[in-house]
Design a protein that fits this description.
By secondary structure, the chain is an alpha+beta fold. Among the domains are: about 80 residues, no CATH class; about 120 residues, Arc Repressor Mutant, subunit A (Orthogonal Bundle), CATH 1.10.10.10. About 45% of the residues lie in helices and about 10% in strands. The protein contains 18 helices and nine strands. The strands form three sheets. Strands 3, 4, 5, 6 and 7 form a five-stranded antiparallel β-sheet that branches. A two-stranded parallel ribbon has the order 1-2. Strands 8-9 form a two-stranded antiparallel ribbon. The two termini are about 45 Å apart.
């Protein structure tokens, strides 16, 4: 994904990762600023079955491998000759009954064996629309625009254009992409191809050898899936399992995974955390506390969570910042004591960060439905700040 954002607070794997390496890289995108983040992996047995089918599907048959080799050789006239061909991977895969992934892998193996050499992909057709009549004196494009090849909403044939104007297709590609980057034109690339240089040694390629390479990749893929499933079903500390997989020793309880910390389990965790919740009678007593402009932000949030017991996360943010939303007015939340009390004091991002930290610190409980409740620890915090509450009197 290429995401390099420091403050990612949560990552959810909706599908089973293909390997421990892939999983480790992806969860590693969270919490790069050093703050706590949550990583959730959703899994069912059908996920493993789907992945195994996908791996098998990506292994071409001998007949398919031979068909790719024959197709490449036929493009240069057969006979073991060499030359440059343009391979539209999507079209070739469709014609040969292959998926794009194994075809790309096959081309990679052929290149490793010196049978072909691939170049940067190009497009041979294009749809162009002018955004600016002033092309800053770009003489080359002005010639194209005046030619019979160009027409808005008309598909332009770059092969024919290349022959007529004596410009290579890669040069035409660069010209059009530069104009698109500068906002002068809108460009839709069509017939995207990989220029493939066919070497004379392609006829010496052993089909069985290529097939065995794919079989080995399939075996390795199945083993990696088995390790991910083992990781999921293991009763071992998650951190210890992963570090051991990469050859490191870790003999502690991390207290940050669902094995070491029951509060992090989905079903059991919510039940365990609810043990921290405050009784309804205590909530009613706490509602007698006034919310003051002199309270710090944490106390303000906690008192508001008491006043609006069970309010959804996003609604609490909207209320405290005084957002004028129809849903807020409809529920009468624009008339509560804490409405707009943090407006001008915290930004939306700052308030969300504060609430997230209070959840992590155990002052608030956030359910799966994002409802917020104050905990016993949260009450203790209010007591410390106000100095006017005896926890024993409140039954905490």
């Amino acid at each position: 994904m290429g995401i390099d954002k420091e403050d990612i607070r949560g990552i959810i794997h909706f599908n089973l990762p293909k390997s421990i390496e892939e999983y480790y890289q992806e969860v590693g995108r969270a919490g790069r600023d050093g703050n706590i983040s949550n990583c959730i992996l959703l899994y069912s047995e059908i996920d493993k079955i789907k992945l195994r089918k996908l791996i098998r599907y990506n292994t071409p048959t001998r007949k398919q491998i031979k068909a790719v080799l024959d197709s490449l050789m036929n493009c240069v006239g057969g006979g073991g000759g060499s030359g440059l061909v343009y391979v539209n991977v999507k079209r070739m895969a469709y014609d040969l009954g292959l998926d794009e992934v194994p075809l790309r892998i096959l081309l990679h193996h052929l290149e490793e064996k010196g049978a072909i050499k691939t170049h940067f992909k190009i497009f041979r057709r294009a749809m162009i629309r002018l955004n600016d009549d002033e092309l800053d004196g770009n003489a080359e494009f002005e010639r194209i625009a005046r030619s019979g090849h160009f027409g808005e909403d008309k598909q332009m044939d770059l092969v024919a254009l290349s022959r007529e104007f004596g410009m290579s297709i890669p040069k035409l590609n660069r010209l059009l992409r530069d104009l698109k980057a500068s906002g002068k034109i809108e460009l839709v690339e069509r017939d995207v191809c990989i220029p493939v240089e066919i070497k004379s040694g392609i006829r010496e390629i052993d089909v069985e050898g290529i097939r065995n390479t794919f079989i080995e990749l399939e075996r390795s893929g199945h083993e990696k899936i088995d390790r991910v499933v083992e990781y999921i079903n293991s009763g071992e500390c998650r951190r210890r399992f992963i570090l051991k997989y990469f050859g490191e020793n870790y003999n502690q309880l991390c207290n940050a995974c669902d094995v070491c910390n029951p509060f992090l389990k989905f079903g059991e965790g919510i039940k365990a955390r609810k043990m921290e919740l405050v009784d309804k009678e205590v909530i009613e007593e706490l509602k007698n506390l006034r919310i003051s402009n002199g309270d710090d932000a944490e106390t303000t949030v906690l008192k508001s969570a008491v006043l609006l017991n069970g309010i959804r996360y996003s609604w609490l943010v909207s209320v405290l910042l005084g957002y004028k939303r129809i849903s807020i007015r409809r529920e009468g939340l624009d008339r509560v004591e804490c409405y707009g009390i943090l407006k001008g004091k915290l930004s939306k991002g700052e308030l969300e960060g504060l609430i997230d930290k209070m959840v992590i610190d155990g002052l608030l409980l956030k359910t799966i439905d994002t409802e917020l409740f104050i905990t016993g620890k949260g009450v203790a915090y209010i007591k410390k700040q106000t100095g006017g509450i005896e926890l024993e009197e409140l039954g905490v």
